Amino acid sequence: MIGRSLNLSRTTFTNFVRHHSHGGIPGENLPFGIHNRFKLTAYFMLFFGSGFGAPFLVLRHQLLKK
């Protein structure tokens, strides 16, 4: 019973990998487009800027709180 279910999951995963890959095109599996350089730069600035700036905003909020 366990062997049968393991075999079924292995076959399903193998089929998924085999049929859902398009040959290793760079950037194919990313959740954002990489063809527009300026949009990509803006996304990176927002992503890393928000992570870098969050502790400073929290600190400012705590210092201004009465």
UniProtKB/TrEMBL annotation:
Q: Name one Pfam family in it.
A: COX7C
Instruction: Specify the protein's topology with respect to the membrane.
Output: Single-pass membrane protein
Which key words tag this protein in UniProt?
Membrane, Mitochondrion, Mitochondrion inner membrane, Transit peptide, Transmembrane, Transmembrane helix
Domain of life per record: Eukaryota
Q: Does the keyword Metal-binding apply?
A: no
Q: Which GO terms describe its biological process?
A: mitochondrial electron transport, cytochrome c to oxygen
Q: Which InterPro entries match?
A: COX7C/Cox8, COX7C/Cox8_sf
Regions that span the bilayer: 40-59
* Pathways involved: Energy metabolism; oxidative phosphorylation
One GO cellular-component annotation of the UniProt record comes to: mitochondrial inner membrane
Subcellular locations according to the entry: Mitochondrion inner membrane
- Main location per the UniProt record: mitochondrion
Q: Which family is this sequence assigned to?
A: Belongs to the cytochrome c oxidase VIIc family.
Q: What is this protein called?
A: Cytochrome c oxidase subunit 7C, mitochondrial
